[in-house]
Amino acid sequence: MGASKRFLILIFFPLLGYSQAFDSTLTINKKRLRAFTIGGTVAYGATLAGLSYLWYSDAERQSFQFFNDNPEWKQVDKVGHFFSSFYFSYGTSRALQWCRVPPAKSDLIGSLVGFGVMLPIEILDGFSDAYGASTGDLIANAAGSAFFFGQSRLWNEIRIYPRFSFHRTKYAELRSDLLGNDLTSEILKDYNGQTFWLSVDMDKFLKFPKWLNFAVGYGAEGMVYARDYQNTNAGYLSPYRQYYFSVDFDLSGIKTKSKAVKTLLFLANMIKIPAPTIEFSNNSVKFRALYF
Known about the structure:
alpha+beta
């Protein structure tokens, strides 16, 4: 599944970023649950219809088949699937708890939904001769949902958050039809500029300030084409992986009673804030005073 499709679903899927401490004496708020279920179903259905028109209308139909895209883009796209399914799971669980569904049920249902919302796209890909379903995508989707559910059951909270950052690169202009021709499309399409992080709430493990996290990141550069040999044959630099270590900041530590602000903080917490970073790549170590 392309990054554009993933991000469009993430944007349109109704993630409720606020919740309240669960009180076991309260019963499920059926009115809220009904509104969330209907609203989520309608929004998701509309998103699928839009994706079907935008991505598949010009492609020929075929009998269902898989396509092995695992060697492509240094697997940055697979990490993106992990990121998306984690937040589908997390957001759904938070929304269900807002409906006063018990946490254990909310976490389980959220994890299943997190995987399930991505599944129809793989099915559509499988019937399109322009794509093909990907086992790697399915595994990454399952891993993201499992990462959320595992933390929820182990610690009764999330302590390690996937995060995303982006910077513009020189590679997009070399193949703008595929990698984007403006900031918005490049964020969605240029894997060279995408970095995915795991940000650890250090105060949950050691005596650290609540706002201070440490994060490890992964990205890759040198990719004008999907596969290494294609880049080499075209005369571009050989693609290489990048690993990062950085400080991070936990926005959830900001106290507010506003549900709207809580929702904004929940969404903003998906993004890695620019900070001093150490990069390990191409057998070298680089220090970046402010990396995004």
